[in-house]
Design a protein that fits this description.
The chain is an all-alpha fold and 202 residues long. The chain contains seven helices and no strands. The protein has one domain.
């Protein structure tokens, strides 16, 4: 019983996060879809119309490439966490903010965030303002004005450049979508399990 009481705040943070985040990401996805398809009349999941260009990577190949890219980024993030104190500090603060999440919560958050953020930042925004600007905006969207979480924002800009670059190279939004979902699907449970039961620092 005592353990249940100790873990209750972490579980409460996790449940609240899921309740707020999933509808938020749904709205982002709808906004991106309306802008890209409704206003611009352009395909959502391809940089150009696949019927007009042979350069768009097929969906199957895009999924495989996205899986590999996502796992590579997971490896880099885990190395940062294990080898540098700044990485461990960022992971701890993110995990504390996440709270204690169930596997299905992690899966829902990973799918919702990976799909919606790529639809918005790469699918809708990047064709309008360019790769660099969209990546900076992506980093600013992850900005937390507190050390060392500022490093997380810098990391997000770098990842935005990678995701945006592979989107341009492949012509398929499915590559960054799958990579983003993989990164979150692996890292969210790790962060929650390691640090989600810890109360956030004041």
């Amino acid at each position: 019983m005592q353990s249940e009481e100790v873990n209750a705040p972490g579980r409460a943070r996790g449940r609240q996060l899921v309740r707020l985040a999933v509808p938020f990401y749904a709205v982002l996805a709808v906004v991106a879809l309306v802008w890209r398809r409704g206003v611009r009349g352009a395909p959502m999941f391809a940089l150009v119309d696949p019927g007009a260009s042979p350069d768009v990577l097929p969906v199957g190949s895009a999924v495989v490439l996205g899986l590999g890219l996502g796992l590579a980024i997971v490896l880099l993030s885990q190395l940062w966490t294990k080898l540098w104190p700044s990485g461990e500090a960022v992971a701890r603060m993110l995990g504390e903010a996440l709270g204690e999440l169930r596997w299905r919560d992690c899966a829902a958050l990973a799918a919702a965030s990976g799909l919606a953020e790529e639809m918005l930042f790469r699918g809708a925004l990047q064709p309008e303002i360019g790769l660099l600007a969209a990546s900076v905006v992506f980093g600013l969207a992850h900005l937390v004005p507190r050390w060392p979480l500022l490093l997380w924002s810098v990391f997000a800009v770098a990842i935005g450049l990678v995701f945006g670059g592979v989107f341009v190279w492949s012509g398929s939004l499915w590559v960054p979508v799958v990579a983003h979902v993989v990164v979150n699907a692996v890292n969210l449970p790790l962060l929650s399990r390691r640090y989600g039961r810890t109360a956030p620092a004041g």
